[in-house]
Amino acid sequence: MKNITLSADEDLIEQARAVARSRRTTLNAAFREWLIQFTARPSRVREIDALMRRLKYVDSGGRRYTRDELNER
User: Fold this and answer.
1) How far apart are CA 61 and CA 39, in angstroms?
2) What's phi and psi for 5, nearest 5 deg?
């Protein structure tokens, strides 16, 4: 594992540490998780685009659904 140095406002770092503590993790672990998610975004976009292309055939028949109808389970 490689070490890096980051700079940020001291208050912001303390707030981030507090959030990490509340999630029972460390700021280092939280940053590593963020880095994984950050680098995965382009592949997620491609996956979503591929899914939308596969679902392109779905047609609502022009009907517009209300928010309540869309949220019904």
Assistant:
1) 38
2) -115, 130
Helix (H, G, I), strand (E, B) or coil at 60: coil
pTM of the model as a whole: 0.55
Domain span at 42: 32-57
Q: Is residue 37 part of a domain?
A: yes
In a domain, 65, yes or no: no
Q: Measured between alpha carbons, how far is 73 from 45 in angstroms, rounded to an integer? A: 27
Residue 30 CA to residue 6 CA, distance in Å, equals 14
- How many domains does the chain fold into? 1
Terminus-to-terminus CA distance in the chain, angstroms? 45
**Full pLDDT tens readout for the chain, 73 residues:** 899 999 999 999 999 999 999 999 999 999 999 998 888 877 888 888 899 899 888 887 888 888 998 888 6
